[in-house]
Amino acid sequence: MVRILKFPAVLFLLIFLSGCAHVISQDLRNRVDPALAFREVFNNPDFFKGKYVVWGGEIIQTINQKEGTTLIEVFQRPLDRRGEPKEALTSEGRFLITFEKYLDPYVFRRGRKITAAGEIQGEKVRPLGEMDYRYPVVFGRQIHLWEEGYYYPYPYYSPYPYYYPYPWWGYPYGWGFGIIHHRHR
Questions:
Q1: On the chain, which terminus has fewer CB atoms closer than 10 Å, C or N?
Q2: 22-145 adopts what CATH topology?
């Protein structure tokens, strides 16, 4: 009888924990110094060359280089425990990620959330408006591009009032119960 009860509990625990797993591999996260803050690296990237970091934020632009590499400019955001960039108004700056392969700018487009792990390469100065901006540069070893979507908090207004299985009051105005995730394609 105890064996029968253990299986569903273990199965539930595995499913629950898999939803909470970090998107960057354990091997790369073991190389990261958790005490190393983005602001420290931002102030002196050359001092931290060779150190590994896990950073994320929103893509500003993706540029494919002549030699077949890709450069991604990212607006830094703090990460949650899974590695997803938080919907916060705060940022400590911008950074660049380089990859040794072609990444399509349509897929890696402006506004998409991204998390990357890699090795600090130093800094690169590029124009930002009318000023020169010092970007920390990370050589990307692993990348995670987050699903696009809109999240409406409870209660919310949805432009699509016919979504199943949520109960609706205020029909046809779209006021509903619960949280819904709309993906746009």
A1: C
A2: OB fold (Dihydrolipoamide Acetyltransferase, E2P) (2.40.50)
C-alpha distances out from residue 55 to 23, 41, 140, 183, Å: 12, 11, 10, 24
Answer whether 37's CB lies under 8 Å from 68's CB. no
Judging by beta carbons within 10 Å of its beta carbon (0-12, 13-18, 19+), is residue 74 exposed, middle or buried? buried
How remote is the C-alpha of 121 from its chain's centroid? 21
How far apart CA 161 and CA 58 sit, in angstroms, is 29
Q: What residue has token string 């990460």?
A: 79
All structural domains of the chain with their residue ranges: 22-145, 149-185
Residue 29 corresponds to which tokens in the numbers above?
A: 């996260």
Q: At CA 75, angle to CA 180 and CA 99, rounded to 5? A: 100
Q: Report whether the peptide linkage leading into residue 8 is cis, meaning its omega lies within 30 degrees of zero.
A: no
From first CA to last CA, the distance across the chain in angstroms is 48
Question: Quick check: 161 pLDDT over 90?
Answer: no
pTM for this model (two decimals):
0.71
CA–CA gap between residue 90 and residue 141 (Å, rounded):
26
